[in-house]
């Protein structure tokens, strides 16, 4: 798609993100917004053909609309609307902002589509929109075609919305989990150093040689369970299920939490345990009960890419020192007591801050990619000091990472 590979787009965004992080100059900051901008920018680069400046009003508007809708969907109003849409259509409430925000996002996308139409070259597509517009032209005589303008606008919206918040939230959970489990951090770091080293960038083909890192990423998604009640789906034909008939058009909502915490599928479902995705020989094993975000096998509309400089998350993959909540309660679902999540549909960590120390120059500029769930977190061993600060409501949760290596 276009002349640049996705890996090139990731590297480009990683460099911009790294430059943005250097501006913090050791001051504490909440990584949520900067992660959202970088995640969204990679997706926007694939869809629109180019990235946005971090201060671009279009990017800031996209992130604002996504965050607001995600919070509404995660509220009780959003939960009720998904279950009783016809009833809540007649009631006032914050759920009505969902449609207003969707309209604003649709207008923003439509403006970009019009710009693409004016400069479209079917023989040289630049991005997702160009490819979709070309397909619309090819199938315009087919009355059954799914390629038309409304589908383009909706698909683009879903890709941006689904890819930005879920990947960013997963990354924040990964930070907190890695900070809690130094032995997991150390083993991930050892595997990364052994397989990737310091002289090259991590690549997708490294995944087969990194079973433990792959298992950790899958377990982060299972344990975090950020969408415990999956998105609604609709039965497209009469379907028999466990002795009952589901008529065509029936809305189905899957409770992923019951699957991810099923003791018949996971040995210790209430604990963070990468062994859930490792066999007896420590090779990676798939689990049929692992269903992140959406329907089995879908994992979202498209693979979700997240660019991230190695220096940032490798700090979380280094040894941790300083105060840590005592007892192993944080190894279970009581982990939420220290890092509580927002209620209802989306489980998101409460805001926290990190402090980055002076970044050590690497031998080569490196990037960190997270392809959820296709690619594990891969980070070289250039570590930096990082301090995690939780809100005042949770004063014990102050962690210090001092993982510098020679």
UniProtKB/TrEMBL annotation:
<dbReference type="GO" id="GO:0005506">
    <property type="term" value="F:iron ion binding"/>
</dbReference>
<keyword id="KW-0560">Oxidoreductase</keyword>
<comment type="similarity">
    <text>Belongs to the cytochrome P450 family.</text>
</comment>
<keyword id="KW-0256">Endoplasmic reticulum</keyword>
<dbReference type="InterPro" id="IPR036396">
    <property type="entry name" value="Cyt_P450_sf"/>
</dbReference>
<dbReference type="GO" id="GO:0006805">
    <property type="term" value="P:xenobiotic metabolic process"/>
</dbReference>
<dbReference type="GO" id="GO:0008392">
    <property type="term" value="F:arachidonate epoxygenase activity"/>
</dbReference>
<keyword id="KW-0349">Heme</keyword>
<keyword id="KW-0503">Monooxygenase</keyword>
<dbReference type="GO" id="GO:0005789">
    <property type="term" value="C:endoplasmic reticulum membrane"/>
</dbReference>
<keyword id="KW-0408">Iron</keyword>
<protein>
    <submittedName>
        <fullName>Cytochrome P450 2F5-like</fullName>
    </submittedName>
</protein>
<dbReference type="Pfam" id="PF00067">
    <property type="entry name" value="p450"/>
</dbReference>
<keyword id="KW-0479">Metal-binding</keyword>
<dbReference type="GO" id="GO:0020037">
    <property type="term" value="F:heme binding"/>
</dbReference>
<keyword id="KW-0492">Microsome</keyword>
<dbReference type="GO" id="GO:0019373">
    <property type="term" value="P:epoxygenase P450 pathway"/>
</dbReference>
<keyword id="KW-0472">Membrane</keyword>
<dbReference type="InterPro" id="IPR002401">
    <property type="entry name" value="Cyt_P450_E_grp-I"/>
</dbReference>
<dbReference type="InterPro" id="IPR050182">
    <property type="entry name" value="Cytochrome_P450_fam2"/>
</dbReference>
<dbReference type="GO" id="GO:0016712">
    <property type="term" value="F:oxidoreductase activity, acting on paired donors, with incorporation or reduction of molecular oxygen, reduced flavin or flavoprotein as one donor, and incorporation of one atom of oxygen"/>
</dbReference>
<dbReference type="InterPro" id="IPR001128">
    <property type="entry name" value="Cyt_P450"/>
</dbReference>
């Amino acid at each position: 798609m276009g002349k640049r590979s996705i890996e090139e787009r990731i590297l480009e965004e990683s460099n911009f993100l790294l430059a943005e992080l250097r501006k913090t100059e050791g001051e504490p900051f909440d990584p949520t917004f900067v992660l959202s901008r970088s995640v969204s920018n990679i997706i926007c680069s694939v869809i629109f053909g180019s990235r946005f400046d971090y201060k671009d009003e279009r990017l800031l508007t996209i992130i604002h609309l996504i965050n607001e809708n995600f919070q509404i969907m995660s509220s009780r109003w959003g939960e009720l609307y998904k279950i009783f849409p016809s009833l809540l259509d007649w009631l006032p409430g914050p759920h009505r902002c969902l449609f207003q925000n969707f309209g604003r996002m649709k207008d923003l996308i439509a403006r970009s589509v019009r710009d693409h139409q004016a400069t479209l070259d079917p023989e040289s597509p630049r991005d997702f929109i160009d490819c979709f517009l070309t397909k619309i032209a090819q199938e315009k005589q087919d009355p059954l075609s799914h390629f038309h303008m409304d589908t383009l606008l909706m698909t683009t919206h879903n890709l941006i919305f689904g890819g930005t918040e879920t990947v960013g939230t997963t990354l924040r959970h990964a930070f907190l989990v890695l900070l809690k489990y130094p032995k997991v951090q150390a083993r991930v770091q050892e595997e990364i150093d052994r397989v990737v080293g310091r002289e090259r960038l991590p690549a997708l083909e490294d995944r087969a040689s990194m079973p433990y890192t792959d298992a950790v990423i899958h377990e982060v998604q299972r344990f975090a369970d950020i969408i415990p009640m999956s998105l609604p789906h609709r039965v497209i034909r009469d379907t028999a299920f466990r002795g009952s008939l589901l008529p065509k058009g029936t809305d189905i909502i899957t409770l992923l939490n019951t699957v991810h915490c099923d003791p018949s599928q996971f040995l210790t479902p209430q604990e963070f345990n990468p062994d859930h995705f490792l066999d007896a020989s420590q090779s990676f094993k798939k689990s049929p009960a692992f269903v992140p975000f959406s329907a089995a096998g879908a994992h979202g509309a498209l693979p979700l890419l997240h660019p991230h400089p190695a220096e940032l998350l490798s700090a979380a993959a280094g040894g941790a020192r300083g105060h840590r909540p005592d007892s192993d309660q944080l190894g279970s679902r009581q982990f939420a007591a220290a890092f509580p999540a927002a209620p209802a549909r989306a489980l998101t960590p409460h805001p926290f801050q990190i402090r980055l120390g002076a970044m050590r120059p690497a031998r080569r500029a490196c990037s960190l990619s997270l392809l959820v769930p296709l690619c594990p977190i891969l980070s070289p061993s250039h570590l930096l000091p990082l301090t995690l600060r939780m809100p005042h409501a949770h004063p014990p949760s102050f962690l210090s990472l001092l993982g510098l290596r020679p």
